[in-house]
Design a protein that fits this description.
The protein is α/β, with parallel strands linked by helices. It contains 26 helices and 25 strands. The chain has a 7-stranded mixed β-sheet with strand order 2-1-3-4-5-6-7, with helices on both faces. Strands 8-11-12-13-14 form a 5-stranded parallel β-sheet. The radius of gyration is 27 Å and the shape is elongated.
């Protein structure tokens, strides 16, 4: 992994890069970024740009918060949180993009009614709820026009927009409107939606984008601002082209408007050189936003980038990290300082780590120090799901209250098809220990993997009634084909690419070959479970969700015995008494998860000489009562409330 230097110009650079005219820079975060958190990208870039010698000032405008208030006013409150939530979560592909397609420069005039658009017809036929979005579709042009007029009137030189997921068209709509009002204004687009070929495709398709930043902006933006500052001071076209052409990953235009895309460098930003984010603009805007009065703000902290598991075994369905898979992280002391600063400055307790996977060293370096602060923090991390009880306990003691463990499935065979590096019984064990330690695991059941069959799921569906006390999945859904995933880059894995998402194609209305380089989501031929079995799996998840409320299966110590209170079926609570000796020792040993053969050997070795004879009947009874979960040959205890190591 090559790490590149960023920050102040090297010694001697002043003579080669003379100061230019000072620039006024504005960053804009458009919908559909979450309303309850600042943009980590813009908050990180703000101090970097503020310190740039060619910049006079830098401001951040939260267009997503402005939009929320605009919708509140225009709808009288009848369109709001629920509609926003569905779009921000990505419940249905392309809805957020479609809402702002009405404000894009290429939109038809007069504006077609929402129900007559290709996207509305297609999405409605597939079950999308479009009443609220249709009303927002009509509001978007006026909002974009007013926002562009406000920005254009403030004499900014450069406007930078960030785009991830459904932020493309909202950002494009604003950039186009700004260019109509002030053609000399420099527009710059960056973010995850610009990674790889996507950035070049966007730049080529929309001529009102002056520059597109691909890769990590900490590397590209300072160099671009150097050129823009000197260009404002009279930099010649030949030198301008030479300078812009030397910036790795930058998309730019020649004097006659022709698009150019520079190759991406192999190196990445070392985390110790990433600026400490400045969230003040967000919290200033949040305090003025009427529509979020009942919203508790959160803050994002970035500990690391990339994925250490993906470096070794890239999960077949995952398109996250794009071209930047290599894992690197900030030192624990640096992260602790950032947490202390943001909590103190902005009085927030919800700290969301943006990392796609936790640096495991944080369990012993960072989290104990956070716990020692004595603050009632509610922290979130993404983790690998084979954590032990002791590791989860360190997280709980360190203030972690929610994780996204990437469980994805409870079938060991299907998890193997995904390259998850974990088993189904380990996932069940994690769910049990999360319930014991009051850590909420956010997870989904994914299906539709090439090679899976109903046999992989039949036993799981049968046993879900025994899992009612554990946190259920948020949903069950067929996988989507995403750019950068192994299923996308390696068709031999069995997922047949049908081309760019038909829903997105109906929004963008661009040639298919251009869209193929631009979008993140693709359609694919259904694989794995058929429609009938897929629906059966989804119903099982829904039943789990319905049964979960109030359900519990918890073990209590009574001297040397264990009493297990079973309230998974509310109308028929039960209790099970496990007597001291083999029953208690065997059940405790199954907290880790064992095969019956290994369990019998361990019991024999512990001095319980009659274990081999008595265990089969015990295990059969426990399995029948749903006190253990079976995954092939492995059994894992289901009762919460017990520790293991």
């Amino acid at each position: 992994m090559t790490l590149l230097q960023i920050g102040p110009a090297p010694v001697g650079a002043e003579s080669r890069v003379p100061p230019g005219a000072p620039l006024r820079v504005l960053f804009v975060c458009m919908p559909w970024a979450s309303l309850d958190m600042p943009s980590l990208a813009l908050s990180t870039l703000t101090p970097l740009v503020r310190e740039h010698r060619g910049v006079e000032s830098v401001d951040v405008l939260y267009g997503n918060l402005r939009w929320a208030d605009h919708v509140l006013r225009e709808s009288g409150g009848s369109v709001g949180e629920e509609d926003f939530g569905r779009i921000v979560r990505g419940d249905f592909i392309g809805v957020g993009e479609w809402v702002f397609s009405s404000a894009l420069r290429s939109a038809q005039s007069p504006l077609p009614a929402p129900e007559t658009t290709p996207f509305h017809r297609l999405a409605s036929a597939r079950g999308a709820e479009l009443d609220g979005p249709s009303r927002m579709y009509r509001m978007a042009p006026g909002f974009v026009r007013a926002l562009a007029e406000e920005i254009a009137g403030q004499e900014y030189d450069v406007v930078g927009l960030t785009t991830t997921f459904d932020q493309n068209i909202p950002s494009l709509a604003l950039a186009g409107a700004l260019k109509d009002l002030r053609p000399e204004l420099v527009t710059v687009l960056g973010g995850a939606n610009c990674d790889g070929p996507q950035g070049g495709a966007l730049h080529e398709a929309y001529d009102f984008l002056d520059h597109v930043v691909r890769g990590e902006a900490e590397l590209v933006l300072p160099q671009l601002l150097d050129v823009l500052s000197q260009e404002a001071a009279g930099l010649g076209e030949g030198e301008r082209a030479e300078r812009l052409g030397a910036i790795s990953g930058l998309c730019w235009r020649t004097a006659d408007g022709a698009p150019r895309a520079n190759a991406l460098a192999a190196g990445m930003v070392p985390m110790e050189r990433v600026p400490t984010p400045d969230f003040s603009a967000y919290f200033d805007a949040f305090g003025r936003t009427e529509s979020v009065r009942d919203t508790v703000p959160k803050v994002q902290i970035e500990g690391g980038r990339g994925c250490w598991w993906g470096e070794k075994h890239h999960c077949t369905f995952c398109g996250l990290n794009g071209t930047l898979m290599a894992f690197r992280s900030k030192p624990a002391e640096r992260v602790l300082t950032e947490i202390r600063q943001v909590v103190t400055d902005h009085r927030v307790l919800d700290v969301i780590f943006s990392d796609n996977i936790i640096d495991m060293q944080y369990l012993t370096s960072l989290l104990p120090q956070v716990g020692e602060l004595g603050w009632d923090l509610r922290m979130f991390f993404e983790v690998k799901s084979n954590l032990t009880y002791r590791q989860l306990l360190k997280m709980a003691d360190g203030g972690v209250t929610q994780i996204q463990p990437g469980i994805e499935n409870l079938s060991t065979r299907v998890l193997g098809l995904m390259r998850k590096g974990v088993t189904g019984w380990q996932n069940v064990r994690l769910l049990r220990d999360c319930r014991t330690l009051a850590i909420y695991p956010s997870w989904n059941v994914l299906y539709g993997f090439p090679g899976e069959t109903w046999e992989d799921y039949a036993s799981i569906v049968e046993q879900t009634r025994h899992l009612a006390h554990l946190f259920p999945p948020d949903l069950s859904t067929r996988i989507r084909l995403t750019r950068f995933s192994p299923y996308f880059t390696t068709p031999e894995l069995g997922l047949e690419n049908s081309g760019p998402s038909e829903l997105l194609a109906s929004v963008y209305q661009l040639p298919r070959e251009r869209l193929a380089d631009m979008v993140y989501m693709f359609d694919s031929e259904p694989a794995g479970l058929g429609a009938e079995h897929g629906a059966r799996l989804e119903r099982a998840v829904e039943q789990w969700q319905e049964a979960h409320r109030g359900a519990r299966l918890v073990a209590f110590e009574e001297g040397s015995d264990l009493r297990i209170v079973d309230e998974r079926v509310r109308r028929a609570p039960r209790e099970h008494l496990l007597a001291a000796g083999l029953a208690v020792e065997a059940y405790r040993d199954l907290l880790k998860g064992r095969t019956a053969e290994v369990l019998a050997r361990r019991m024999q070795e512990s001095g319980l000489q009659d274990a081999a004879r008595r265990l089969p009947a015990l295990l059969d009874r426990w399995e029948g009562d749903g006190l253990v979960y079976r995954d092939g040959e492995h059994l894992v205890a289901l009762a919460t409330g017990l520790e293991w190591s």
